[in-house]
Amino acid sequence: MILLGLNIDHCATVRQARYRDASATCGGSVEPDPVTLALLAEQAGADGITVHLREDRRHIQERDVWRLRECIATRLNLEMACTPAMIAFALKLKPDSVCLVPENRQEVTTEGGLDVVGLRDRVQPCVDAMNAAGIVTSLFIDPDEPQIELSAKLGAPWVELHTGAYAEAYHTPRRAAEFKRLCVGASLGKEAGLTINAGHGINYVNIAEVRTIPHLHELNIGHSIISRALFSGINEAVREMKAKLRA
Ligand code: PXP
Predict the structure, then answer these.
(1) Dihedral of CA 96/52/167/187: which sign?
(2) 193-225, pLDDT tens digit by residue?
(3) Of 10, 59, 162, 200, which one is the catalytic site residue?
(4) How far is the CA of 110 from the centre of ligand 1 (A)?
């Protein structure tokens, strides 16, 4: 069964829109609390919680991550840039896994995959440090052969294939080609011994096809589930996506 990792960054985005400068809980009035959301999502069947602690701290804050580390019962997946500061933070936090992502201050959300080939000298020490600490490393990469092969060579046990280009092409003639690219990438990764995850831009419509990508272990989904939860609540939003994963 494909696992569901829920990315809760956008719950924090809503909180930060109002309480960017609040350092305490303001008597409980600071809302919405991403940790509470994570606990409710776990009760509804989420298999793991993902957060991206960005350098500019635009949504998730360090204290959110520490609270999640203490409270959640499933797995904590920390998305992070491959920087010395984030490596030091992850080694202290000890999440169940880290997902290395590219980070650019101007971007609205993570844009392309991590260029493992171009950044090999930065990625290798990070993978080594996480492996030594018993933290699973996932590399968020575009589903292209050189990136996949090098990810395996660097010793990262997992990759997360970037589904953003497919999601963007969903209503265009490019969809079939992008889907094939993901399927081929997943098979190459599996042959290279990698665990295959995928994420970015997955929603309640494209999930029907995304779930048929071969060898999937886990999907990381954020924006569409958090958006759906505004109308139906997080419990229903998670349950509905889990049902579509199994369908
Ligand atoms: N996976 C990674 C590595 C991401 O950076 C993101 C976006 O933060 C997601 C998954 C989730 O993407 P979305 O919010 O589009 O579902």
Answers:
(1) negative
(2) 999 999 999 999 999 999 999 999 999 999 999
(3) 200
(4) 7
pTM over 0.85: yes
Which residue of 79, 196, 217, 227 sits with most ligand 1 atoms within 8 Å of its CB, as the best mutation to test the pocket? Answer: 79
**What is the arithmetic mean of pLDDT over 144-161?**
98
Ligand 1, pocket residues at CB < 6 Å: 7, 9, 52, 79, 99, 101, 109-110, 140, 160, 199-202, 220-224
Q: How far is CA 133 from CA 141, 154, 203, 235, in A?
A: 23, 16, 34, 34
Cα separation of the two ends of the chain = 10
CB burial of 40-50 (b: ≥16 within 10 Å; e: otherwise) equals ebbebbbbbbb
Would you call 154 helix, strand, or coil by DSSP?
coil
DSSP element (H, E) containing 148: helix 145-153
For 97, phi then psi, to 5°, come to: -150, 155
